[in-house]
Amino acid sequence: MFVEHLQLKNFRNYQDLNLHFDHQINIFQGDNAQGKTNILEAIYVLALAKSHRTSKEKELVQWGQSFSVIKGTIQTRRNSLKLEMQLTSKGKKAKINQLEQRKLSDYIGAFNVIMFAPEDLTLVKGSPQYRRKFLDVEIGQVSPSYLYHLSQYQKIIQQRNNLLKDFTKNEKNKLELLEIWDQQLVEYGSKVISKRLYFLRHLEKWAKEIHAGITDQNEELSILYKPSFPLELGNIDVQDMSDQFTLRLQKIRKQELFRGTSLIGPHRDDLYFSINQIDVQSFGSQGQQRTTALSLKLAEIELIHDEIGEYPVLLLDDVLSELDQKRQTQLIQTIENKVQTMITTTSTEGININTLKRSSIFYVEQGLIS
């Protein structure tokens, strides 16, 4: 799939913008704070109904305006889609071919993107929260059921935590309510974990192959899911997982009541990366950590293709300058002639010359594009 046309109204520093893109590589060049990243952000919001930079939607609306609109024409192998995202103080409205979608989960997945920004290079050594977000964003694009189960789980966690904080001894009615929340926590939490395990098995297959190629077959990358409680993973099914989850909740009941919060579940899980059986987060070099992050992002591209039969659009936000020529070459070889790519950069110096030859270059200055 590819973005053919993008139209912005009152988005960030763009009052009115119309852009037509090359089907292969598009480079946006300009100094910092000119609006390059805003274009990639708009495409990201068009796909996922949220920004990768801020959770405050009012920041996406141009100063002094009450609304923002992002429109895009997306070409897939099967058809052409007209997507629209409206942002106002009252919330978001999403449309596909002019039909408003009742739920955002009905909208997300129509158009797929992979964002690779400098902060993604810290995917390995950053906080567990960042790795969970990585899983949730990518799985959510290809699995509407995962989005639903995750959303339900998050609501339950919030309600359960409120109850735990307000719990005092011998309150029978609250204890009965807690048991109800426990059942729902286990039900949706087990489904979230199960889908993550499925996703990671397929992601690891591609990441291993890509990482081995980058390192001339000298390094073997492995990915391990780290649940927040003892869990026999293997070929475990959802029912077995639910049983283990329930038993663990019973064992830590007093701890949770004392601390007033939910101590286990997918909201506290993490990922573990190793190279040649050595922990990359603790002992890997900066180069190994960056190669791992790059391998994961490139593996995502192939995984989405496996799942939906289409390659996503790749958004590279000022990240090529962070990669040496070897890693740039591996990236370009992966996307060549099959993945539409949007690149932002302050300078084309250092970018692979073959990449530049096949690119459409847009110059960005103070919100104006030429």
TrEMBL record:
> Any idea which positions bind ATP?
30-37
Q: Report the domain of life of the source organism.
A: Bacteria
Q: Which CDD domains match?
A: ABC_RecF
Which InterPro entries does the protein's record reference? Answer: DNA-binding_RecF, DNA-binding_RecF_CS, P-loop_NTPase, RecF/RecN/SMC_N, RecF_2
One biological process GO term for this chain?
Answer: DNA replication
Residue span(s) of domain RecF/RecN/SMC N-terminal: 3-367
MF terms from GO for this chain are:
ATP binding; single-stranded DNA binding
Q: Where in the cell is it found?
A: Cytoplasm
The similarity annotation says: Belongs to the RecF family.
- Primary residence: cytoplasm
User: What NCBIfam families does the record tag this protein with?
Assistant: recf (TIGR00611)
The entry's cellular-component GO terms read: cytoplasm
State the name under which the record lists this protein.
DNA replication and repair protein RecF
The keyword DNA-binding belongs to this UniProt entry's keyword annotation: yes
Question: What is the role of the protein in this entry?
Answer: The RecF protein is involved in DNA metabolism; it is required for DNA replication and normal SOS inducibility. RecF binds preferentially to single-stranded, linear DNA. It also seems to bind ATP.
Pfam name, any one: SMC_N
Question: Which terms are listed as keywords in the entry?
Answer: ATP-binding, Cytoplasm, DNA damage, DNA repair, DNA replication, DNA-binding, Nucleotide-binding, SOS response
